[in-house]
Write a structure and sequence with these properties.
The chain folds into 2 domains: 272 residues, Nitrilase/N-carbamoyl-D-aminoacid amidohydrolase, CATH 3.60.110; 224 residues, HUPs (Rossmann fold), CATH 3.40.50. Strand 4 and strand 5 form a beta hairpin. The chain has 16 helices and 19 strands. By secondary structure, it is an alpha/beta fold. The radius of gyration is 26 Å and the shape is globular. The strands form 4 sheets. A 6-stranded mixed β-sheet has the order 5-4-3-2-1-14, covered by helices on one side. Strands 6-7-8-9-12-13 form a 6-stranded mixed β-sheet, covered by helices on one side. The chain has a 5-stranded parallel β-sheet with strand order 17-16-15-18-19, with helices on both faces.
Length: 577
């Protein structure tokens, strides 16, 4: 028996493309497995409640059912499809929605087999808002063999769940195989965790474990594929990342499975949110440094996300504001490396009164290395005119943050004016460290359609830049990497005038954003109490900026954006208690 894991890639609710993929996939005998909610795409959020979507999906489901029944009958071919099952009330309003696995057998009606039991309700997930959970274990028979069925979260044990589908299945085995249909978002180390968990369940259920995952960029959420199969400890099949692929494997025979002891409680979803600190015990603690393999995966993920957003929203041109600094240089390089035929990338340099000649020289150098034209669009005169207008109109002084922020907002305005002219997509250049402490200007350097670096701390920006130079022959000038970071909004400005050194800041932020550490905890990790207090204050005050920030490409367990929900209005005192 052959098992075909179809790692599919399509746009949410593109029913025509979904139908075409399905109709061309069943060209050979075997068990064909498609991802969670393959028939709709994922995540749907409130789309699954909207009448036009429900109408189109129900019509599509009937078409698939009619097509399947017209196929020549075959006992050698079957497909398992992730989809939705609606129960509608008299007015067409959903009474219940179930996240299910459909069985498609040639010559027979489409039928639901299993309903997802564990509905995740943390971080980016809010499935309990939309779906009704299943109540029975997933057991399915085909060709005289019994299979255990799971949908994504069903494989992740948790101290917070009241049930564990894997333990329920263990009571009613044996099985020829365990099959999991997933729509599992990408994180840098997520695939290793998936495989580790699958190995545990393979040993628990004494059967090979087949896992299929979807591919795609859905705004800020990435799905990486990397479908696989394990048998006990052995990984015997792995699909590539960020590409549609069919992984065809034989049904593995049972092997000698190691006793799992208490490891059923390991590799739970809670473990995915643990902060990533270096294993070195020296104080103060530091972030764990990405390996070359992790850098390669992150670079690929960011390039993939840019192309996904652009293609799904109709962009063929990109626009980056180049400053001569590290962040914009990395964004420009990633954009250039991602370009497809027929796409264009434009770099604009907008010098102000405090921009140094070195910034222009470095901007020119990187554009020459990347084969791009650099356009200079100065803001000096606009800045002077605004300053004069305000001084002539208002009695308050035009200085400090007022003077600094207007420069950044002028750049944002000019950037989008150029975007209006050409239809180019503006790519944001802010990083996670800046977002966390509010070191950016609202409607200024925070503008953009998509943030590529919004889930990378500043130290990770430098690490990724170093890897890109290593892998691609020094595309980013060394002078950009070695110069002290500066917004160049006042004379001799340096980031470290306002912030702790990024090595310390990023480690503190990792502790804060994992939700696991209090100010006192950070001081025991070697950070100065005054510095910790300052970072917490900056973090708390910047919530309003983050709420209005553009979508951020999510590459970690805890990111700003879709899965981060903190009130704007709150008393900040508890951060210091």
């Amino acid at each position: 028996m052959q098992i075909h894991l179809h790692q599919t890639h399509h746009t949410i609710a593109d029913f025509t493309a979904i139908r075409q993929t399905l109709q061309t996939a069943l060209d050979r005998p075997g068990l064909h497995v498609f991802p969670e909610l393959y028939l709709t795409g994922y995540p749907l959020a409130d789309l699954c409640l909207q009448s036009p979507f429900i109408h189109s999906y129900q019509k599509f489901l009937k078409e698939i059912d009619a097509w399947a029944q017209k196929l020549p009958k075959s006992s050698e071919t079957v497909a398992l499809l992730g989809g939705l099952a609606y129960q509608l009330g008299d007015e067409g309003i959903p009474v219940s929605i179930r996240n299910v696995i459909y069985e498609l057998t040639p010559g027979a009606p489409l039928r639901p087999l299993y309903t997802k039991r564990l509905l995740p309700n943390y971080d980016i997930f809010d499935e309990q808002k939309y779906f009704t959970p299943g109540t029975t274990p997933g057991v399915w028979e085909w060709q005289g063999k019994r299979f255990a069925l799971m949908i994504c979260e069903d494989m992740w044990a948790s101290s917070f769940h009241q049930l564990d589908p894997a333990l329920d299945l263990a009571k009613i085995g044996p099985f020829a195989a365990v099959i999991n249909l997933s729509a599992s978002p990408f994180e840098v180390t997520k695939n290793e965790a998936r495989i580790a968990r699958a190995r545990t369940l393979s040993q628990l259920l004494k059967a090979p474990f087949y896992y299929v995952n979807r591919v795609g960029g859905e705004d800020e959420i990435l799905f990486d594929g990397q479908s696989f199969a394990v048998n006990g400890d052995k990984l015997f099949g792995q699909a590539p990342a960020f590409a549609a692929h069919t992984l065809s494997l034989p049904l593995a025979s049972a092997t000698e499975y190691a006793p799992i002891g208490s490891t059923i409680c390991e590799n739970t979803w809670e473990s995915l949110f643990a902060p990533r600190f270096s294993s070195e015990k020296a104080l103060p603690r530091r972030l764990q440094t990405w390996s070359d393999a992790e850098c390669a995966l992150v670079a690929r993920a960011l390039q993939f996300s840019l192309q996904e957003y652009a293609s799904k929203n109709g962009f063929k041109k990109f626009l980056v504001a180049l400053s001569g600094g590290m962040d914009s240089a990395l964004v420009l390089t990633l954009a250039k490396l991602s370009l497809a035929p027929g796409q264009e990338l434009e770099a604009v340099y907008m010098p102000g009164s405090f921009s140094s000649p070195l910034s222009w020289d470095l901007s020119m150098e990187i554009c020459q290395k990347l084969g791009l034209k650099l356009t200079s669009l100065p803001i000096k005169f606009l800045h002077s005119n605004i300053r004069m207008a305000f001084q002539n109109t208002f009695p308050q002084p035009f200085e400090g943050l007022t003077d600094e922020n207007v420069q950044s907002r002028l750049r944002g305005m000019l950037l989008y004016t150029r975007s209006n002219q050409t239809g180019a997509m503006v790519i944001n250049t802010s990083n996670k460290s800046e977002l966390a402490v509010g070191y950016s200007t609202q409607y200024g350097d925070s503008v953009g359609a998509l943030s590529l670096l919004g889930d990378l701390y500043k130290t990770e920006v430098y690490r990724l830049a170093e890897w890109i130079n290593q892998a691609h022959g020094g595309l980013i000038p060394k002078g950009i990497i070695t110069r002290p970071p500066s917004a160049e909004l006042r004379e001799n400005q340096k980031d470290q005038d306002s912030l702790p050194a990024y090595e310390r800041l990023d480690a503190m932020l990792e502790g804060i954003l994992s939700y696991r550490f209090h100010a006192r905890d950070l001081t025991t990790m070697g950070f100065e109490a005054s510095e910790v207090k300052r970072v917490f204050q900056l973090y708390a005050k910047a919530e309003y900026k983050r709420r209005q920030f553009c979508p951020i490409v999510k590459i970690k367990a805890k990111s700003f954006g879709f899965g981060y929900r903190v009130p704007l209005s709150k008393h900040p005192g508890f951060y210091q208690d």
